[in-house]
Amino acid sequence: MAAFSPALPLAVGLSGGADSTALLLACAQKWPGQVQAIHVHHGLQAAADDFEQHCRALCRRLQVPLTVQRIDARHASGESPEDAARRARYKAFEAVALASNAQNAIHSIALAQHADDQVETLLLALSRGAGVAGLAAMPADWERGGVRWHRPLLRVAGVQVRDWLRAQGQDWVEDPTNTDERFTRNRIRAQLLPALDAAFPAFRDTFARSASHAAQAAELLDELAQQDLALTGSPPEIRLLQGLSRARQANVLRHWLRVAHATTPSAAQLGELLDQLAACTTRGHRIHIKVGRGFVVRSGPRLDWYNPEVLV
Ligand SMILES: Nc1ncnc2c1ncn2[C@@H]1O[C@H](COP(=O)(O)OP(=O)(O)OP(=O)(O)O)[C@@H](O)[C@H]1O
Q1: Using one digit for the tens of pLDDT, what is the confidence trace for 100-133?
Q2: Ligand 1 atom, smallest distance to 41 CA
Q3: How many domains does the chain have?
Q4: Largest CA distance in the chain
Q5: 37: in domain
Q6: pTM, full prediction
């Protein structure tokens, strides 16, 4: 938090839980008159009104302007309720930043994820078999929608955040779902983090270092994919793809499918596509492989992708 120097005015995403309560308090103390808060009311759980009340009382006491955004975070089929809520929340933050008037325009938004959240994200990525992009976990800073986003607590342990809050005499609302071990993240927090603490006391720092190595590697792979896609064309030409190593083919194909078709192949689908590419040496060789909601096919000298649902 010491090195955190955001462009002001700053808005803090305030859920009412310990972490964002602490972040708002620290920021309001550091930059009086330059900080505001955004609370998103999901209406998903009975405790939502308690969260809102806590946020209103806290902001009144700190004399911090508060915007409460009500959202409908119902999830689409195939999407987890947590992902839907997170996506809707980010959209709500962006809408508030966009609507902030010129005089008090929000330049940065800070979120309160801390080092334990980062370790949980990394372990979740490992449990899904993620590649380096997933193992990069959460970035500390990024830019989107003309706003700088920050996670200033990413190197601070969860217990330190709560200890600081207690020392400040500040209360918070405990999210009742945080102890529900039906959620994987909560099982990681309750069962794995204490075991990691016992086995590797420095795990928060060392895991964070691995995540930032992965982030750097992911950036390089992305740059290489852009260069290779410029070489093969989009959609890519089969003969030019075949001139690349198998690892580079995999990298550029993943990139092409993501940027051009917003789809990600499974490891098995990509493996099959690479095998087909290697075998594609005759004019008549057909390629037709399911990827995401559609198919990668051969179309003359190139690959192509189509979604049959969109064609009808
Ligand atoms: N309903 C919300 N309204 C505003 N900001 C939110 C809300 N939910 C989460 N955030 C922001 O996003 C961050 C990450 O959310 P996440 O749900 O992972 O954590 P959290 O357990 O809610 O954190 P906290 O201890 O602050 O409640 C929060 O620390 C907070 O800054």
Answers
A1: 876 679 999 999 999 999 999 999 999 999 999 9
A2: 1
A3: 2
A4: 75
A5: yes
A6: 0.91
